[in-house]
Amino acid sequence: MASFLQWTLSLGLLFMVSETMGAAPRKPVDVPFGRNYVPTWAFDHIKYFKGGSEIELLLDKYTGTGFQSKGSYLFGHFSMQIKMVPGDSAGTVTAFYLSSQNSEHDEIDFEFLGNRSGQPYILQTNVFTGGKGDREQRIYLWFDPTKAYHSYSVLWNLYQIVFLVDDVPIRVFKNLKKLGVKFPFDQPMKIYSSLWNADDWATRGGLEKTDWSKAPFIATYKSFHVDGCEASVQAKYCATQGKRWWDQKEFQDLDAAQYRRLKWVRSKFTIYNYCTDRVRFPNVPPECKLDRDI
Ligand SMILES: *[C@@H]1O[C@H](CO)[C@@H](O)[C@H](O)[C@H]1NC(C)=O
C-alpha cells in the first residue's frame, strides 16, 4: 500500500513537472508610469490619468511623442498594456520595443500599423542582433486592438526571445549561436514606446495617408511594471544571471500547447514572413531553417 502511494505520488509529481514546462510569463502588476518610465520627447503630448497609472500618447500634425524606461535591462519579461488609436488610424504607427544603446545594436520590436476605420491593424515584429535586422514578420490580430487593453510582451533570456500577445506566443527567436546567428546576450536594453506618423509606408504600403482632420490620434497605455535584471548601460552581464524566474527550465522553450498556439497564429494570421521571402533572401536565413518546423 505504501509503495503504491509512493508510486502514485511520484507519478503525480512527474506529471506536475512536465505540466509546468513552458509556463506563461508572470503577470505584471500595475504601477504608475513615473516609477519606471520618463517621456522621451514632446512632453506636452503625453497625458496622465489615475495618478499616472494610465497615460495617453497624442499625435497631431506637429508631432508624435514617446517614452522610455529609466533603467536598462539584461533579460527579463517586458510588457505593456495598450489600447491602439481607434477609428481612422491610417498612417499612424504605435511602437513598443527594446533597444540597446550602441551602434551594433540589438532590438526587439512590436510595431502596430494603423488603418482606415473598420480596416484591420497589422502587427509587425522584427529582431535586430549585432546591428542586423531585416527579419520582419507581419500578422493580423485575432481581435480589434482599439476596443480594449491587450497585453504585449517580450520574454528574453539566454535561450529564446518570445513575443507574446495576451500570453499567446506569436513569434520565437531561439538562441542559435551554434548556427552562427547572433543572439542578444551582453548588451542591456531599454524599453521604448512611441506614437508617430509614418504615412509614407505604414498603411497599404503608403497608399493611405494620415487624415489630419481626425487628429489628435490617441494611444492609451497602462501597467508599467518592469520585470528584468537591471544593469548599467555598459554592463556585459546580469549580476543575478541564471537565478531569476525567466531563466528557469520552464521558460527556456515553449511547451507543446504553446507551440500549438504559435502554429495557430502563424497559419491563420500571417501576412508576411521574411523567412519565406525568396526574392529578398534567395538563401534561407539560418534561423529560418528551424522556423519551418513550427
Ligand atoms: C488595411 O486594410 C487593408 C484593406 O482591408 C488591408 O489590405 C491592409 O493590410 C490593412 N492594414 C494595413 C496596415 O495596411
From TrEMBL:
Catalyzes xyloglucan endohydrolysis (XEH) and/or endotransglycosylation (XET). Cleaves and religates xyloglucan polymers, an essential constituent of the primary cell wall, and thereby participates in cell wall construction of growing tissues. Residues 19-221 form the GH16 domain. GO terms for molecular function: hydrolase activity, hydrolyzing O-glycosyl compounds; xyloglucan:xyloglucosyl transferase activity. The active site is at 107 (nucleophile), 111 (proton donor). GO terms for cellular component: apoplast. Belongs to the glycosyl hydrolase 16 family. Glycans are attached at residue 115. The keyword Signal applies. It is found in: Secreted, Cell wall; Secreted, Extracellular space, Apoplast. Its EC number is 2.4.1.207. Residues 1-22 form the signal peptide. This is Xyloglucan endotransglucosylase/hydrolase. One of its GO terms (biological process) is cell wall organization. Keywords: Apoplast, Cell wall, Cell wall biogenesis/degradation, Disulfide bond, Glycoprotein, Glycosidase, Hydrolase, Secreted, Signal, Transferase. The keyword DNA-binding does not apply. Contains at least one intrachain disulfide bond essential for its enzymatic activity.
